[in-house]
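Changelog-adjacent note: as of this version, every example in the card shows the full chain rather than a window. The one below runs 115 residues end to end.
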Amino acid sequence: QVQLVESGGGLVQAGGSLTLSCTTSKSIFSFTDMGWHRQAPGKEREVVARITSGGSTNYAEFVKGRFTIATDNAKNTLYLQMNSLRTEDTAVYYCAGLRLGRLYWGQGTQVTVSS
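Full-length structure tokens:
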């Protein structure tokens, strides 16, 4: 069974930092593509950042220069380092992974940025 478990969300002041983690139950090498998505109240889920198994990354324009996606292959963990947080970054953050043609989602972790 494939499971993705996020952690690291919380409440932070604007300008602060948080690091989200997503640990997989299968080798992270078995995922061809992984990413972080977010969904704010009343809005659709949107892609934040993605990383391929080859290490290529891409970011949504609204997080470029502030967020960094990375993996620790030995720990089977995906990270999202979030700096210079803004109130508009408030959302539930989900990790997702594409494995053998199927997309898997974590349960989500709440990030709240206060002004």
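Structural remarks: The two ends are 40 Å apart (CA to CA).
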